[in-house]
């Protein structure tokens, strides 16, 4: 057996690397491209959680009263060091969750570093007070925050929480996914190097099922910011409820994409297929239900099949690869079961499916798959698959398209491609989702991100993302 690339036997608590109090064996992190152990990390227990929260609580007393300018400079110093560790961060993400290295560079790492810098300037917003009549409104840091993240965009998801938390004056305990802990531990090394005050940033590596509820229920924690599945998000909220803490939840999605009869079909269909297949379909906001007019059905299917089959599925280290494996064998199994369910329920496979080429069988691969003749009541149209599987659903008129779009328990993202932006906007306003991308627009951290319905509560990124980490205090003057 090969020696793992990474070994992190300790936890980063109060500015120091400390051994876990746990007698549990360490956690093996698996490279999903080949099934080999790529890293080992500590496996924290409740005592470790208590130590990390206690460190964050002590640090809050002085960190929360630093000036906005000081916090801005700390954020920029972290961002500079992230830039210096660019290749380490890219490699770590590629090896632990399978994103092709060339794609990981920009989509997983550079974009996250750039986004982290944007929070530096927002520190001043946290400090600004407003006066309305005889009332002064102050924005104060909410307190000690627990940040829990999944594995699909592990650095971006950390940045989307850590940036505003630090800018607001909060201290944090972060818990990355057990599958992708390395980028958080690299950030700990960065923070140790630049000398951020001890206890402001603490990292706990461990299983959500073992330590998650203790983290979320802890009386010294003021806020939990969670990204992950809706099922785990509900457990987080239940654990946090008795101590009435603030909970921000970024959860699952089953996002609709309406293409109208008079849209540029080549551009519209290409955009939709590429969106779903990106990151091997492991994007919470992926536009996994493509709603298309019956009048253009065959033409749309021809384009979708052609675009989908352009994907090169393979080794994440190969620069030609456009699609790597899924993040784990467990995720592969889950996605293959959904594909089998789609077949059993009568949807038609346009491309992809259950078969895998011989050379990919060792890794957690799934071929890019499109189902057609999907009706919105099928399991594959209702449940989040979180893999490279697109459902194409025909509609008769735009009224029916809107009805199908909104017929879901989720409301994270959506998209419309129409003849022109004005026509698209008219449809966008009728969709119950936190975001709507018009005419092939792309993700931007300038836009608040978050869900309606069971996709979550709260928003991330930009000013709205910062506000989640602030409490409003009213000072009433005589
Ligand atoms: P997951 O819910 O299994 O795990 C997410 C994180 O929560 C991990 O760190 C895990 O250890 C932890 N966790 C698990 N059980 C917990 C508990 N009871 N208490 C506290 N923490 C717990 O999700 P996953 O499989 O890692 O990620 C995939 C899911 O994340 C998908 O459903 C996807 O839609 C969602 N997601 C949402 C967004 C968003 O912003 N809305 C972004 C990315 C992923």
Bound molecules: nicotinamide-adenine-dinucleotide
> Biggest β-sheet: count, sense, barrel?
7 strands, mixed
**Corresponding CATH architecture of the largest domain:** 3-Layer(aba) Sandwich
- How many DSSP E strands? 21
Q: For the residues shown, what is the average pLDDT?
A: 97
**Helix content, binned percent:** 25-40%
Structural class assignment: alpha/beta
Question: How would you describe this structure to a colleague?
Answer:
It is a single chain. The protein is an alpha/beta fold and 478 residues long. The protein has two domains: 6-251 and 456-476, 3-Layer(aba) Sandwich (Aldehyde Dehydrogenase, Chain A, domain 1), CATH 3.40.605.10; 256-448, Aldehyde Dehydrogenase, Chain A, domain 2 (3-Layer(aba) Sandwich). It is built from 15 helices and 21 strands. It has helices spanning 46-63, 68-84, 86-97, 101-127, 154-168, 182-194, 208-217, 230-240, 265-277, 297-308, 329-344, 379-382, 398-406, 421-428, 462-467; strands spanning 6-8, 10-13, 16-19, 27-30, 37-41, 130-132, 135-141, 144-148, 171-175, 201-203, 223-227, 246-250, 256-259, 289-293, 348-351, 369-372, 389-395, 415-417, 437-438, 456-457, 470-476. The strands form five sheets. A seven-stranded mixed sheet has the order 15-16-17-14-13-18-19, sandwiched between helices. α7 (208-217) packs parallel to α8 (230-240) and α9 crosses α10 (297-308). The longest helix has 27 residues, at 101-127. The protein is globular, with a radius of gyration of 23 Å. The model has no long low-confidence stretch (mean pLDDT 97). Bound molecules: nicotinamide-adenine-dinucleotide. Residues 148-152, 175, 177-178, 207-209, 212-213, 216, 227-229, 232, 235-236, 250-253, 284, 384, 386, 412, 456 line the site of nicotinamide-adenine-dinucleotide.
């Amino acid at each position: 057996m090969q020696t793992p690339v990474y070994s992190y036997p300790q936890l980063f608590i109060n500015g120091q690397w400390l051994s876990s109090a746990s007698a549990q064996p360490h956690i093996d992190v698996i490279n999903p491209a080949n099934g080999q152990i790529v890293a080992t990390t500590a496996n924290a227990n409740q005592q470790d959680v208590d130590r990390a929260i206690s460190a964050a609580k002590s640090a809050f007393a002085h960190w929360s009263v630093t000036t906005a300018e000081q916090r801005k400079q700390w954020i920029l110093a972290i961002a500079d060091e992230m830039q210096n560790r660019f290749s380490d961060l890219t490699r770590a993400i590629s090896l632990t969750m399978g994103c092709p290295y060339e794609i990981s560079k920009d989509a997983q790492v550079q974009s996250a570093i750039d986004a982290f810098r944007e929070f530096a300037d927002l520190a001043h917003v946290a400090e600004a007070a407003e006066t309305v009549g005889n009332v002064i409104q102050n924005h104060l840091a909410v307190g000690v925050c627990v940040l829990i993240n999944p594995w699909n965009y592990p650095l971006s998801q950390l940045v989307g929480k850590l940036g505003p938390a630090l800018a607001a004056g909060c201290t944090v305990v972060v818990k990355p996914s057990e599958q992708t802990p390395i980028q958080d531990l690299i950030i700990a090394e960065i923070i140790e190097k630049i000398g951020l005050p001890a206890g402001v940033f603490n990292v706990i590596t461990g299983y959500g099922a073992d330590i998650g509820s203790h983290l979320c229920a802890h009386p010294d924690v003021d806020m939990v910011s969670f990204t992950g599945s809706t099922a785990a998000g509900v457990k987080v909220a239940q654990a946090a409820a008795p101590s009435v803490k603030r909970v921000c939840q970024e959860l699952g999605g089953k996002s609709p994409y309406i293409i109208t009869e008079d849209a540029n079909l080549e551009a519209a269909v290409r955009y939709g297929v590429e969106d779903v297949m990106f990151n091997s379909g492991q994007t919470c906001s992926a536009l996994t239900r493509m709603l298309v007019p019956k009048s253009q059905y065959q033409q749309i299917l021809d384009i979708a099949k052609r675009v989908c089959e352009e994907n090169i599925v393979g080794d994440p280290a190969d620069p030609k690869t456009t699609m790597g494996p899924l993040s784990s064998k467990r995720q592969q199994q889950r996605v293959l079961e959904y594909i089998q369910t789609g077949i059993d329920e009568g949807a038609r496979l346009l491309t992809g499916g259950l078969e895998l080429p011989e050379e990919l069988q060792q890794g957690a691969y799934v071929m890019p798959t499109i189902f057609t003749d999907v009706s919105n009541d099928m399991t594959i149209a209702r449940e989040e698959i979180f893999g490279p599987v697109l459902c194409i659903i025909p509609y008769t008129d735009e009224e029916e398209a809107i009805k199908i779009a909104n017929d879901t328990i989720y409301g994270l993202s959506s998209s419309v491609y129409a003849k022109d932006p004005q026509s698209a906007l008219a449809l966008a306003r009728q969709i119950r989702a936190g975001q709507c991308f018009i005419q092939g627009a792309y993700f931007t951290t300038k836009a608040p991100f978050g869900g309606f319905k069971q996709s979550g509560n709260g928003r991330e990124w930009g000013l709205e993302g910062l506000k989640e980490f602030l409490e409003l205090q009213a000072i009433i003057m005589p």
